[in-house]
Amino acid sequence: xxxxxxxxxxxxxxxxxxxxxxxxxxxxxxxxxxxxxxxxxxxxxxxxxxxxxxxxxxxxxxxxxxxxxxxxxxxxxxxxxxxxxxxxxxxxxxxxxxxxxxxxxxxxxxxxxxxxxxxxxxxxxxxxxxxxxxxxxxxxxxxxxxxxxxxxxxxxxxxxxxxxxxxxxxxxxxxxxxxxxxxxxxxxxxxxxxxxxxxxxxxxxxxxxxxxxxxxxxxxxxxxxxxxxxxxxxxxxxxxxxxxxxxxxxxxxxxxxxxxxxxxxxxxxxxxxxxxxxxxxxxxxxxxxxxxxxxxxxxxxxxxxxxxxxxxxxxxxxxxxxxxxxx
Length: 327
Prior knowledge:
It contains 14 helices and eight strands. By secondary structure, it is an alpha/beta fold. Helix 9 (184-212) crosses helix 14.
């Protein structure tokens, strides 16, 4: 297929590369022309404007947005709405709020343009590992664009089938899933990221306690000077708390056991907040996810080793650079 990619940051550029490696043609655009030049040198079709991008695509067109959530998405969609035609599709693969998806889709539907929201997980490793895709929107455009989703997703790989799972016709085993109508994809990704906050916080607190076991405030005979990088490594092998996040934690600790390059100032992308808001709206108890979000707020006043661990994990899986360490 031929598809456009708008936004060539860490995710958009690597997604373009993965699509090209699997035989798709990608028209690329970014506000930074150097990013366009880089991808064009790797086989993408360069466009210098949104107008040129639309002209380079066959109908029905498909345009994938990988830009930060918020105002820039609305501006991009408004501009594209004047350039696209009925039957074309806009895919928002960023981390937009699902209620914004519903609003945007309604506006585009009046123009006959399809809108899909695709929660995309995989970080900077996705080009090789593949991306987990959570898709919202009408069934027809989802089916039309399935070759794109299949190319971006990891596929079955060597992950064994889940015992007793009978829904063998689902694409979930391939790493992509049509979750429901507009907004459903980003809703599922929102909860995914809320859970991610909780998992990261649990690892961070655990390693903070391990490191604190050497404190002189503890009584003689009850102090332990653990090599936390070795602990992370042994947990990777056969432990019930093994995960890709633990793999990345072990990698960060192997590179810098004291995490001296990190300040411990931890930002949040917004989805943790939206997850907590959804829990409030549904009257669902979400103590762990809420506490993990509040811990990030607190980290901006004082920093612990655990919060440095959170920063290290964010950099490992997503290339997120937190506030620099002072001094």
